[in-house]
Amino acid sequence: MSCLLExxxxxxxxxxxxxxxxxxxxxxEQLLTLSLRTSDGGKAVGSIExxxxxxxxxxxxxxDHITTDARGQKCPFACECIAxxxxxxxxxxPFLNTVLKNPVHKLYRFPTSDNKWMRIREQMYETTxxxxxxxxxxxxxxxxxxxxxxxxxxxxxLAPHWDNLRKNVLAHCEQMVNTYQDILTELGKQTGSxxxxxxxxxxxxxxxxxxxxxxxxxxxxxxxxxDALYDVITVGAPAAHFQGFKNGGLRKLLNRFxxxxxxxGYQFIYYSPENTAKAKExxxxxxxxxxxxxxxxxxxxxxxxxxxxDLVRNSLKMLSEKTELFVHAFKDQLVRSALLALYTAxxxxxxxxxxxxxxxxxxxxxxxGFSSSIQRQDYIPHHSDYDEEEWDRVWxxxxxSLNCIIAKVDRLLDRxxxxxxxxxxxxxxxxxxxxxxxxxxxxxxxxxxxxxxxxKRAKQSLTFVLLQELASGLPQCxxxxxxxxxxxxxxxxxxVCGFIMKLHSSLHDPDFRQQLHMVGLVVxxxxxxxxxxxEIGMLExxxxxxxxxxxxxxxxxxxxxxxxxxxITGRREHYVIEVKLPARMFELLPLEIKEGKLLHVxxxxxxxxxxxxxxxxxxxxxxxxxxxxxxxxxxxxKEYCQLFTEKMPxxxxxxxxxxxDLKGLLExxxxxxxxxxxxxxxxxxxxxxxxxxxNGIRITCCKSAKDRTSMSVTLEQCTILRDEHQLHKDFxxxxxxxxxxxxxxxxxxxxxxxxRKYAFNMLQLMAFPKYYRPPEGTYGKADS
Length: 784
Fold this sequence. Notes:
Blueprint: E1 2-9, E2 12-20, H1 21-26, E3 31-37, E4 44-51, E5 64-68, E6 74-81, H2 93-99, E7 100-111, E8 117-127, H3 129-153, H4 160-188, E9 214-221, E10 228-234, H5 250-262, H6 273-306, H7 309-329, H8 333-344, E11 351-353, H9 357-368, E12 379-381, H10 388-420, H11 436-471, H12 476-506, H13 510-518, E13 521-527, H14 534-547, E14 552-558, E15 567-571, E16 574-581, H15 583-586, H16 591-594, E17 599-607, H17 612-620, H18 624-647, H19 650-659, H20 662-674, H21 682-693, E18 697-701, H22 708-725, H23 732-742, H24 744-753, H25 762-766
Parallel strand pairs: 10-18, 13-17, 13-18, 14-16
Antiparallel strand pairs: 1-2, 3-4, 5-6, 6-7, 7-8, 8-9, 9-10, 11-12, 14-17, 15-16
């Protein structure tokens, strides 16, 4: 077998040499010195040494060639891997190929502290989710907004004032729907693409698409330690880059909008953000529970027709659980107050002038469930003709209907047990058996009719609440909705990618499977944005977008075809992401997850600015935004850790605590968050360490996930090699420089800006923390 080496200088061909592998194996020192010659075999242009290293078996089909740095110099620790990594579980290959695209592979060999070699495979992938998730979300938003517009039209006849407001809202909302439809059409034209470059921040049609989203993966083969896999999702800061940050980001804009809305004229009944959020939540519950109740009610009838006691009991149990949740959702005072508000907005309703706004108005609005903390209570609803007990009767009828069904089933089962002498084997209707279906059918119809009446009244009243939210803030309200949708879309794409890859890499671990369904997963976003100039707005957007991920739940299903792309359902206040797994992976899951249990994530954001703009912010500006975000998310992390220790089994926790000083790490993080230390990057190191130990999902962000992110990711990889895999301490910096000079991240820069240079200059780097500075010769181009 012969091998051919080609050496390139500054990306141009220098020379080549060939040798026989047998000659290398037979040589005394397993070392060959070869002469490099030009392509025509003539002029000698130098020499190269080839030696044999035993670093474990090379996968089938894999070939390596030596790489050179930006100045044409060889890196003795790195080589480029042309063929992808072989995957042991062939069933998961179609699954991965659906989500991951355009891989870049690099191989490294570094010495360990005991003078052996470890081998590291660094990989970077684009993902089809960059465009798939935004398209799914925008389609969902269009459906939701069209449904809401229809619900506004279905409010029925309103007094002239409210009718004019409705027309105004509908005009704006229909314009927003058209905008979303246009964006979706444009995204549909982006066929074959799975990557949005950092240079496209200003493109409106791509604003829902995450910037530079990639999976960064490190696979470590150690001589004595177990092989390990480490994933980090890298993505540009989820933010409305196209809309800009002249007036700040979402965190500031939402607060300002709320203050302005409170000061709107008296023609609106004021509902607090908590109340409008509650209205959306109840509407979401209706959308989820109503079809479930109908399905379980029909299932009960099917079981009754089969005359199977066990099936009937099971169907009744599921129907009872969902109906009780449904009834409970309407006990909120908000629904009652919204019904009254809608009543007062009907034509002919009398509005009574309040003689003393400080007394009567306050008392009446308090009774109606409205806020009286604003200066527009000159007019209040007159509700003396409104029957407040009517609503109680309507939704209470649901509970009564359910009770009738339960009582009827109990009697049928008791009589059947007496007739059959205890034989509950089931089967079809036999002569002499009661027809359970005929007994239950009219009761089921009554239950559905009661539910329909509840839904009709509740939807109308809560839609009226949302009408006022929209009417009191047009057009800013819809523009903020657009901005929030844009930011959320980018954040969600990163989360879904991280969740899917975590499933793929950890599903064979029984402890992970247990944690997945008993606790849920922590998702830690690492931010590297400064609190200066426009990056303040980016950080404000990012903080809200990541917090909004709390509205997301995952459901895992078994794929019925080779289409493994996730499906999104729900509405803005509650999203369900359906992740489809191959059969063999799905079979590993706990029964509860297989049966559709929703899995929750706990999103966190820790941010530490590291560039020269952060230096200005710390000396002359304000870092309170960063301090506030880190403090808030530290508390959320503590809550997750408390949940983790409460819900995981004691035997697992005992073993976990022996191997991981979680309490000590949390205390250290707490102290660093409290410390007034400039560019305290230890906050990020500690947060990342805690996340990994908790089987969490790691996501790293800067403005475009290209330069600062590359410094952070490579530092994290080398730190893991040192702390977890015995990387020789004298080679830490050399390994770091090698990864930054030759690794996947410099390729990421190239694909973004067509230049193999990190966007730093010497002056900027002087302000960077020591370990975030790239090696000489790898930087120098302006940011983009």
